[in-house]
Amino acid sequence: MHRQLHKVGSRGALGGNFLSAQLITNHSPYTSRKLQRFSLRLIDCSVSFPDRLRPSATASSPAQTHSLSLWNGADEFTQYKDRIDALPLPLPAITEPVRIVIVRHGQSTWNAEGRIQGSTDLSVLTEKGVNQAQKTCDMLSSMRFSMVFQSPLVRARQTADVIMQGQSRSVLAVTHGTKAQAAGADSGSGSDGLRVTLPSLREIDLYQFQGLLKHEGKALYGEQYKKWQKAPHTFQLDGRAPVRELWHRASLAWQSLLQPHEQEQPATGETAIDGGDMAADPRVILVVAHNAINQALVATALGLPPSYFRRLPQNNAALSIFDLEPMRSGSSCKGSSSGSRGSGGDSNPLVTLSCLNQSPDNPFKNPDKVVANVVLITPPRSGLQPPTTHMSWPSFSSSSTASAGMRGAAEDTLDMEDLCSLSSVLSKLQVTHVLAGPGVGEKTIEALLEGQQPLQPGAVRPTASAEDQQWLPSENHHVAASAATAETAAAANATVTGTAATAVESSGNAVNGDRRGVVVEFLEFTEPAVAVWERAVSLAATQMAGGDSGRASYGNVLVILDEETHVGVISAALGVAGSNFGTQLRVSPWGLSVIEFSADPRVTPATVRCINNTAHVPPRQRA
């Protein structure tokens, strides 16, 4: 058996030279067909490419699987010795502000096929993946990157190629190893930035799973694969812990991303970000990598442990933005991840998550797996009446004439173009309930529901009884609610049940017209964010009539609320409300956050699909 390499075109789909690996063999037809699928490779691929095709394990019979594991005990990344099952390192100290833009690669051939990629390098971008990367390029067109860090894997490098086509500045490509030594190197003649290939940004190492279709992994590895699906942070393969290793490796990547480096200034002397002036802050760094490693980068910056794997998913070509500032002497520790990361003290930077997993595509993913959603939206401050503080359980009811007039008093200041854009986004999800915070008027609600299909009469069943709501202070949701909050919630159960049923009944007549049968409840006062979250979960847990047989159907709750409560609800969803969660979250006008459940919301940890997504907002309105 031998392999023959030949050029398949002077220009590939992304404008680069490619090689094809054509297998010449007398082995089975499937093996030949399977390996020929791995044909497209960039011309600067690793010299160890043939080693990646060496099978180390096959199924005991063709009935079990048709694919080969591509792991043979070592690979080109073994030399970096970064596969360590250890706690993450704290974020390093910084001396100047820095913005980090983290992007996942576009759809790859193995994404489309459902094959486990891990840190293998045998897939390239599909046409869809190239188009996704182009959309990300458009979203980032106003930013000017002082530096680019990319994974060594082709699918990430291709995505970086597309994004950098929107940059007017030239970037010097370099490769570096275990430390970011090249980051401080001379950027070279005619270049004002660096493009660095960082091995620690490769995708999660999945060893024997790599190269298998997902159903083949399940058939071959049984209980191990089930644990990978259900409890990935405790999952091990031959004594290796892929997720815990990944968390540690992400913390190593942060050491490289945040180390000081020299750079030339743009010819204009200016660096533009979102149309703003950041001449005092020239460090804007682009990171292009993968789903799992990007989750680990986000989580380690937020101080969240490996148990959060898959609770902060990253869509193809989606971006997340962190803004970091040096910790100043005497400054508040809020926004620093040092408290939840362990060590570092006041040297840890102040961390602000400005957006998570943003893309212009439909934010409501995997309808075959997601059974309920809680969607948070924050109108501009000018569109909300100043709230009244009231520390009791919310009043869930339909509006009175007087309160409706007060709620609508500020609505004339809202931009209908923004509302129409949001209505278009929400039309991709069947909203069943609206929970409206203080100051939110009926016109706003009706505009947001404009694209909804009318619900059938009786589709929304009354919420659960008081007995069923005993889960509220929600250890099942990992909400760190105080004892006082828990007692308040428990004491309010009977009241909530009664008013919720009344709301369904009374609002049924009031809202079946303009509100398309959606149940609307108004919060008359400012309430603790944990209480708002628990009420949203209670509504999401509403059983829907007419669901598919054999699969429970739950509600989709739209929560319209102010910025501070929006941030608090996300903290509650992540289970860090009331804890020493130092990271700040940014919420922009009309920022949208999506929280998902894969099963009964009362007993299933929440997945945060996106935070402060403003891709639907016209650029002039973005914060």
From TrEMBL:
Similarity comment text for this entry: Belongs to the phosphoglycerate mutase family.
SMART domains (alphabetical): PGAM
PANTHER family assigned to the protein according to its UniProt record, in alphabetical order: 2-CARBOXY-D-ARABINITOL-1-PHOSPHATASE-RELATED, BROAD-SPECIFICITY PHOSPHATASE YOR283W-RELATED
Region (Disordered): 327-352, 382-403
CDD domains with a match to the protein in the record: HP_PGM_like (cd07067)
Record-given protein name: Phosphoglycerate mutase
Biased composition (Low complexity): 329-340, 392-403
Superkingdom in the source lineage: Eukaryota
Coiled coil: none
